[in-house]
Amino acid sequence: MNLSIVILLSLSRINLLIMISVFCMKLPSLTRIIILNLALSDLLFTVGPLFWVYDHIWGSTLGETVCKVYSFYSSVGFYSSMVFLVLMSVERYMAVVHPQSDWKKEFCVRDGLVFAWVMSILVALPVMVNINAQSYSGGCRYSKTIPYVITMYKELLLFVSAFLVMGFCYIRILPTVKFPGNHSNITTGLAFVLVTTFFICWAPYNTLNLLYILDYHQIWIYTNEKHLINGTYICFILAFTRCCLNPVIYGLFGLESGKREEKRAASETAPVGTEHEGSSHEYCDLSVNKSPRTSKPDDRSLSSKRSCKFL
Questions:
Q1: Which stretches are tagged as biased composition: Basic and acidic residues (predicted)?
Q2: How far is CA 243 from CA 41, 153, 195, 233, 290, in A?
Q3: What is the mean pLDDT of the chain?
Q4: Are 241 and 202 spatial neighbours (Cβ–Cβ below 8 Å)?
Q5: Which of the listed ranges 94-108, 117-131, 172-186 does the model predict with the highest average pLDDT?
Q6: pTM attached to this predicted model
Q7: Which domains does the chain have, with CATH numbers?
Q8: Contact indicator for 142, 130 with CB cutoff of 8 Å
Q9: CB–CB of 150/114 below 8 Å?
């Protein structure tokens, strides 16, 4: 029941995220494109658990084909979400650390998005091939142990690789960020929070994957199978919670970005001489007294009459 509530919240908030990304958030176009693809990944990932809830409640499956299809969709969403977060981190790294680079050309963006989807689909294909509907136990299960262990290896390897790439990007980005009010830094902060949320939600799941892999190789660190099963259920709920948190994060950063845009627009359209909070304007009296005999500027008069005020 808890999982079904999380799934329904995820679906509703993913739709909200898409609307926020398109109509409300004032982000660079490339970042907005990556966010939309990330939202689609979350949507695909959330499709699978809907059928898992059905299997758990009614104790039956919808057939072999449906089982393979929704497992495939969920796997594609899982892999592609990590790839898009890596792509967003690399985009922020290039924009902040190497702002003069021309890597943001249209063909680079298109190739990066196509590569992310193609790689995710290829990695998820073995899942569709090896998973089957189990009528006696309910749900979709791997028919053999080896394909299941290989899948855990792939998930763990992709998670660690993504962690290393994103960690490198933000280690290089953070010393470069100097001006807290910069609009570019808001986008960088958004990407950083998304990546942090992803690792917090998915690290426990991948830790359990590591324990299962060690158990398969007869390296027993924790042998209480009941606790591992309960831990897996909790980790799945935590992982799906990320899909609920993403729209909230986007909304908060969107509001902050909108407020800064309104302040900047107000400061640009304000009449000259008006007072703005946090800014200073210099008013100088540059009038020059001329000597009646020479009709030339008097240096002493120039220095004495030049008065500046800061409003």
A1: 274-284
A2: 10, 23, 13, 16, 74
A3: 71
A4: no
A5: 117-131
A6: 0.71
A7: 2-269 (1.20.1070.10), 281-311 (no CATH)
A8: yes
A9: no
